[in-house]
Write a structure and sequence with these properties.
single chain, 436 residues, mainly alpha
Length: 436
């Protein structure tokens, strides 16, 4: 057994050395490692924020404010951050700075339960502030990735990174969910949430070291973005047929997706009676099926183009709304298991969302002031993200804040997502003669 293990390890080491000797191979490996670390952080924190807020005393509406306040704070920093990033000849510096600031933010958030009656509000404020470096990271990473990776290799490297992040998501959901479920009482669970934030702080610092392993040569030119150039960039974007069609389809897609972000959590916890372990099983099921299918969607992209694949991702979201409707229509004893199965199956196409949306965006923006163009698009997506989850809760509350109200709201979401799928299909048909 030991000789076989040693032989396997030597083979792996030899393969690793060969792959990392090639620039594209090194980029694929280190972008995947960096993505895994960020996914561990993102899932550990964001998947449990609603539970943390609930244990700090938040109401349903206050839970929805977590998203609203965070997105508004991120919006304030979006355009200035983009201009600053475009001015830098080395965009990796901005990615690294964003990660270090995010690490510091999470360190502080871990202390929020010590503020007594004000602990939820301290958590809300600090989490909102952390959205500034998070926004800066997302925006500058996209520009940095497109600088490093040529267009003909993006689909394959993004597929590898996505597969790695999905696998990491399974592990962190399983561990974090079971840790919270095993803890006795809210105070013990709150201490575990604090541990998540402090662990995330360390992982983000490790991510910085991984990023620095990626081969990158900047052009060395420091760019100055003037007000007139901002106006020209906005004007050219909204005269660009490919970008404009993507912008409209993507904005409506995000609005229908974000509408149930808080409601999905409320449906699982309040009406399906799921605890932390069940929530982790749902996350694991959806992530596992995405991991198993990402290779298929990579091949679909190569054959049909990235504009086709996103249609399938939107169709999966339609099925997610149906999953909640069906699971809340059966006896409570059968609801969690039925929801787990249906939600898992609904996510079979969802890997196309992280895989295809970025590639569709990069198809439609020019190289000049690329980060600024990405930020202009992101402003509208962030505005949607700021208000749509709260709007979903308001519709649910206006309809009576009971099971019937939840189901009615999800029927509305189901119909809107059907329309969104139709818009992606129309865009694919309109641009079928354009390069894939």
């Amino acid at each position: 057994m030991i000789p076989k293990l040693m032989k396997t390890l030597r083979s792996f080491r030899s393969s690793y050395a060969y792959i990392t000797a090639q620039p594209a191979g090194r980029a694929a490996i280190f972008f995947t490692m960096e993505g895994i670390l960020f996914t561990l952080v993102n899932n550990m924190i964001n998947n449990n924020n609603n539970l943390f807020a609930m244990r700090l005393g938040a109401s349903d509406m206050e839970i929805s404010l977590l998203t609203t306040f965070a997105q508004i704070t991120g919006l304030i920093f979006l355009i200035p951050g983009a201009i600053l990033t475009d001015r830098l000849p080395d965009k990796r510096r901005m990615v690294v700075l964003a990660l270090l600031l995010l690490s510091a933010s999470y360190l502080l958030i871990g202390f929020s339960p010590f503020f007594g009656a004000y602990r939820y509000y301290v958590f809300l404020i600090l989490l909102s502030i952390s959205m500034c470096p998070m926004t800066l990271y997302n925006m500058s990473w996209q520009a940095y990735f497109s600088d490093v990776i040529p267009i003909d290799r993006r689909n394959r490297i993004l597929s590898t990174r996505t597969a790695g992040t999905l696998l990491a998501g399974i592990v962190v959901s399983l561990v974090s969910g079971n840790l919270l479920a095993a803890a006795g009482g809210d105070e013990a669970k709150i201490r575990i949430h604090q541990g998540f934030f402090w662990t995330a702080c360390i992982l983000l610092i490790i991510q910085v070291f991984v990023l620095k392993k990626i081969d990158y040569e900047s052009d060395g030119i420091r760019k100055v973005v003037s007000l007139s150039e901002i106006k020209a960039t906005i004007s050219s974007l909204f005269r660009n047929k490919i970008f404009l069609s993507f912008f409209g389809a993507s904005l409506f897609f995000h609005m229908t997706w974000q509408l149930d972000w808080t409601l999905y959590f409320l449906g699982q916890v309040r009406y399906l009676g799921m605890n932390e372990a069940w929530l982790s099983y749902v996350s694991i099921g959806s992530t596992l099926i995405q991991f198993l299918s990402v290779g298929l969607w990579r091949r679909v992209n190569e054959k049909m183009g990235v504009r086709f694949g996103i249609i399938l991702g939107n169709a999966g979201l339609v099925c997610c709304a149906l999953s909640m409707l069906i699971a809340t229509s059966v006896p409570v004893s059968a609801g969690p298991m039925l929801f787990l199965v249906l939600n898992t199956l609904s996510n079979v196409t969802f890997a196309t969302v992280p895989l295809n949306l970025l590639q569709c965006l990069l198809q439609g923006i020019p190289e000049k002031n690329k980060t600024l163009s990405i930020s202009i698009y992101t402003v509208f997506i962030a505005l949607s993200n700021a208000f749509m989850p709260m709007l979903g809760v308001r519709i649910y509350t206006a309809l009576g804040a009971d099971l019937r109200a939840l189901q009615t709201t999800f029927w509305i979401i189901f119909c809107l997502r059907l329309v969104s799928t139709g818009i992606w299909i129309l865009r694919w048909l309109m641009l079928r003669r354009e390069p894939k």
